[in-house]
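Dear Dr. H.,

I hope your travels went smoothly. While you were away I took the liberty of generating a structure for the chain from your last submission, since the lab meeting agenda had it listed for discussion. I wanted you to have the full record in hand beforehand rather than looking at slides cold. The sequence, exactly as received, is reproduced here:
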Amino acid sequence: MFMFSIKHLLLISKIMLLSILVSCEDNDNQSDFNSSVELKTETIFIEQNVSGVLEQRPVIIQTELNIDENKLYPVVFGLHGNGGTNTVFLNRLKRFTDEGEFVGIYPQGIQKSWNLGSEASRADDVQFFNLIIEELKKYQNLDMNKVYVIGNSNGSGMANKLGVETNHFKAIAPIVSQLMESMPLKSTTQPLSVFQVNGALDPIIPINGGPGPGTHIFLDALESAKLWANKFNCFEPQIRMIGEDTLYEFKNCDNGKEVRYLRIENGEHNVLNSPFLINEIWNFFQRF
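The corresponding predicted structure, in token form, is as follows:
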């Protein structure tokens, strides 16, 4: 029978404790490593409970071919219109993603729509975007402090809703839509920059306000921009002409934000097809 001195017992205890600590540290490091996802062009799927059904909702991630490991890329969401798909932004923003200006994120709406109250989708799309943001935080080389969204038509309404109800985005660009009576700004709405664009000849969403698709009642487009500006305590607008079009710029808003409203006189419901407008939106985003 062996007898151990107190010194021997203390030495053995220290060795065992050190082994446990090293093991825990290795596990922690392994966990951190595993939680970091390589950034690349791919389609991911976000699981969401929609009306009692677990849906696997696709989200396209579009990047440049060779990721710069020393760079943090801004993130631009592209939201399709009603009846559209997330592939529509692949070509619209490809020249920017190819050059590494930003990473494009293109989610798909349920039944090709975003749920603003009277669409085919019954999904909680604000929850969906919360889930996407949490997933994107796992990726290497994404700058989650520079996240923006471009929405077109029904996607524009979704961009407004995200601006009203979340604080994920530094700036939003709602294209050919504006705030609706059913979407008031909230006391919890945080300052962000807004670049709203409307076509004066839009046959679908009335630029002067009134009934539109579904049961939605739209505000006057200029009044919509003024509501954002008043909410964020912006200065009175500077108004300038760009050819026949009118640009309203509400500056010096809270937290250095800015609200813009561009009225395109001969524009209809397809103004986002203009490469000039996409350039202007990205230039605007980069300032915030």
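Two observations you may find useful: The chain has seven helices and twelve strands. The CA atoms of residues 60 and 106 lie 5 Å apart.

With kind regards,
E. W.
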